[in-house]
Amino acid sequence: MSKSSWSQGAGRQSRRTRGSRRGRGSVSDERPVILRLAGISRRYSGAENAPALSDVTLTVREGEFVAIVGASGAGKSTLLNLLGLLDTPSTGTYVVAGRRIDELDERARDRLRASTFGFVFQDSHMLLKETVAGNAALGLSINDVDPALRPGIVAAALDTVGLLEKAGDLAGNVSGGERQRVAIARAIATAPKILLADEPTGALDTANSTRVARMLRDLNRDGVTVIMITHDPSIARTADRVIEISDGKVLSDEATADQATVRGRRPPETRELPAATQSSWSRVRERIGAAISHHTVHAARAALLLLAFTVGSGGLVTAIGLSQSAAAQVVGRLDSAALDEFLVVPKNTPTAIRTELALPDDAPASQVAEVAQQRLRGLDGVLSVGLTSIAEFDEGVTLLNPAMVAEQPVLSPQIRVADREYLRLRGVSLGTEHESMRLFERNAEAPAVILGPALAERLGYADQVPGSQLWIGSTSAAIIGVIGELGEEPQLASALIVNPALAAVVSAADPTLIVQTEPGLPAGLAEVVGATVAPGDPSLFTAETVADLRSLTQGVASDLVSLITIVSWVLLVLSSLSAATAAYLSVHARAAEIALRRAVGESKRSIWGQFVLEGVLVGLLGGVLGSALGVVMLVVFAAQQGWTPTFNFAFLGVGVAAGACTGIIASLYPAALAAQQDPALAVRGT
Ligand SMILES: Nc1ncnc2c1ncn2[C@@H]1O[C@H](COP(=O)(O)OP(=O)(O)OP(=O)(O)O)[C@@H](O)[C@H]1O
């Protein structure tokens, strides 16, 4: 029969609506009323036309089997959703088992729904990657039934629908008809007083439709009140009472069964779901298990989320570890020097310095150095003093005498004046220690130079250059060797180091002196340096202990740590954003599951909690993996750089905590969205 068949003779049916029920006698007048609707209307927000339901008044008694029929868009699903507390009426009073719905808060409505109703939808809304038994047990876990009792209840429910042998199959692998039977098993497992079925046979062939209808009939015989929407007249005829809805109103309400038969049925059994006896700890364990199981079932999605969190946390741990290792490396190097060295740096006021040192205004830097060195050596605890200064030499450096050979390459390397002591204290040495290093004594008179290795290469010299010379402007100087070890002066690689005898030639600036002391004295001696070298104006020379440099370096290192940490947090935020997006999309993909959970009584808070828990778990695991990855990367990088990795167990804590926190943060919005899903809309698949 077509849908419109229900409207044939509508007027006639309408006239006899109440009379017929009264005339034939109620199906079960003696039985208590379980549902009572009075003047119920439902207007959808944004819908401008007539309300989806308007002024509906009806009662349903315990043990009735009611079919709701009507044309498409008549308001049947709206009515069923209101009856099942998936939706709330705009006006009117609805009483379920003696309790007025408008007096209950949302959580109480959820509980009442869970304890009173079972749902079967046209689309079976199966969790396809769960087993048949897992699907049938859904309502039991949501109602906190003792896990030990569940297998028995599920087995009985599956047995009722003839699917016990398929309990272990994946719901996605059973047929459409079987899925609908699983949906019935899921609904009856929670021992509902009322079963609401929205087109339970709508997607089934005739044989399966008949089978499902028979099951509903059997359930009703066992005392369950059944209210079923159907378009199929033959299915509707299996009910005891048919209510036709048209344009949101009850058009007719007829008792169809032979009343003698109906009265002859045994009274409804009182079936109760075992009380919620699950302990809180068992509930938490079950929730965690469900979250893990969700991730393992959706392995690809979980793996992507995990990757995002792993990369984020791993980056953070590596970055913190590397920056701390780098800082420790620098600080360590300086520490060894800090024990017995400091620098004396002249102020950039050459005339004042010369006046103070009683030298002529045009005295070369080497004389300034000479006086300063002498005075410093007079201090107790000073072992040796080396000097260096930057040259301000504009003329070129040539290999041949420029006065004799005009056409030849002219170089302009950086020129540094340094004496033997300076080079020794800074760890700079020739490839092979050379006799001629004495030419770098501070009072040497013969011009001599040493080549940085890169400069030597440019000039075409090998390591050993005995007997060669070069011209600095018009002054010739002996090349006594090429630097082999650059020590703490890597910038000397391409420089020309000239001895103090050439200081005047290369217009050297006033020199910086490096003072080696007995261990532990630099800080104390540095205090008196100014007054020792220039008693008249101590500010002309300042002392820089390596400890100063060390704290400077520590400052730089901690800046570096902050910078890298910021970058890693940005990385972490980005990975959380991608995780949040994935979780957001999964909410939409799981709309049917959420609706189903809400329909079987799960609260909004519980749905929210489940999503957050799933996020925390994957974030936590990502944090653990990321921390491990970070440590491995730290060790590898440090090995490449020749550093000792600075490893701190707190890193692992940071990585794991970062993973867990970002897991929570990334799932907050999607979880709220999931909790706000309207179950009435979701069961329609809207
Ligand atoms: N969420 C909604 N927002 C706005 N209008 C809605 C909404 N849900 C249903 N409606 C409208 O309310 C009316 C009744 O819809 P309902 O789904 O209850 O009809 P139905 O009888 O169940 O139809 P069908 O047999 O096709 O499922 C229709 O006009 C429908 O378009």
Q: Can you describe what's shown?
A:
It is found in: Cell inner membrane. It holds the Pfam family FtsX. Residues 13-24 have a biased composition (Basic residues). The chain has 686 residues and is an alpha/beta fold. The chain has 3 domains: 3-268, P-loop containing nucleotide triphosphate hydrolases (Rossmann fold), CATH 3.40.50; 282-331 and 552-684, no CATH class; 341-518, no CATH class. The chain has 23 helices and 21 strands. Strands 11, 12, 13, 14, 15, 16, 17, 18, 19, 20 and 21 form an 11-stranded mixed β-sheet that branches. It has a 6-stranded mixed β-sheet with strand order 6-7-8-3-9-10, sandwiched between helices. The longest helix has 44 residues, at 546-589. It starts with 9 loop residues before the first helix and ends with a helix. The model is unreliable at 1-28 (pLDDT under 50). The chain binds adenosine-5'-triphosphate (ATP). The site of adenosine-5'-triphosphate (ATP) has 12 residues, from helix 3.
Shape: rod-shaped
Structural class estimated from helices and strands: alpha/beta
Number of separate strands: 21
The CATH superfamily of the largest domain is identified as P-loop containing nucleotide triphosphate hydrolases
Bound small-molecule species: adenosine-5'-triphosphate
Question: What's the CATH topology label of the largest domain?
Answer: Rossmann fold
Q: How many strands, which pairing sense, and closed or not: the largest β-sheet?
A: 11 strands, mixed
Distance between the first and last residues' Cα: 27 Å
Number of distinct helices: 23
Cα radius of gyration in angstroms: 45 Å
Mean pLDDT reading: 81
Segments where pLDDT lies below 50 for 5+ residues?
A: 1-28
Count of the domains: 3
CATH class label of the largest domain: Alpha Beta
> Approximately what portion of the residues adopt beta-strand conformation?
15-25%
CATH architecture annotation name of the largest domain: 3-Layer(aba) Sandwich
**Share of helical residues:** 40-55%
